[in-house]
Design brief:
single chain; 178 residues; alpha/beta; 6-stranded parallel β-sheet; 3-stranded antiparallel β-sheet; 5 helices; binds flavin mononucleotide
């Protein structure tokens, strides 16, 4: 069985809480304790063959970090450090909470920055998520070919759907670590 590394960015704790739920659902024997990306080095991510990476969206469609007014450094400061690192052979699954009502023109768009950065480093992105009919938003940078690049959640408007979405998504991913 392959170990799964879980790393997240957060300002107000939602993405951390989801990371913990993911770790608990996968089980401690497979998933290591989730780590805030502000405390991680690129080498820490390279320890894993499978990564689950979470980010909220701040500003207007931006990554969390200092320039979007977050309390701490986050993905914004981490991604430039990765430039030129080889993630070939690694599988990366992305998730992120957003707010489709208040930010309907940029719903969960920050996922796209992770998608682009890890794709550029050679990683294979797994766990794309169908938009389906439950979401209600105008536009999202996280959509490619009519699918989200990862699991998009909305704890402010669709909290009741989160657990079910997570269960389906993690079931989808499970063959990657078994
Ligand atoms: C100032 C601010 C800007 C935000 N911008 C966006 C946005 O552009 N798109 C989006 O989908 N959500 C946006 N959100 C919603 C957050 O992504 C959402 O609340 C998320 O759950 C926060 O995660 P965290 O608690 O892990 O920091 C914004 C929230 C705040 C407070």
């Amino acid at each position: 069985m392959t170990k799964v590394g879980i790393f997240f960015g957060t300002d107000t704790g939602t993405t951390r809480r989801i990371a913990k739920t993911i770790a608990r659902t996968i089980g401690r024997e497979t998933a290591d304790k989730p780590v805030n990306i502000r405390n991680a080095e690129v080498a820490d991510l390279l320890n894993y063959e499978i990564l689950i990476l979470g980010t909220p969206t701040y500003g207007d469609g931006e990554l969390p970090g200092k320039s979007t007014g977050n309390m701490t450094e986050s993905w914004e400061e981490f991604l430039p450090k990765m430039k030129g690192t080889d993630f070939t052979g690694k599988k990366v699954a992305l998730y992120g909470p957003g707010n489709q009502k208040n930010y309907t023109g940029n719903f969960a768009s920050a996922l796209r920055y992770l998608y682009d950065a890890f794709t550029e480093c050679g990683a294979e992105i797994i766990g794309r998520w169908d938009i389906g009919s439950e979401y209600n938003f105008k536009q999202s940078g996280a959509v490619i070919d009519e699918q989200f690049v990862g699991l998009v959640l909305d704890e402010e408007n669709q909290r009741e759907l989160t657990q079910e979405r997570l269960d389906i998504w993690l079931n989808m991913l499970e063959p990657s670590w078994f």
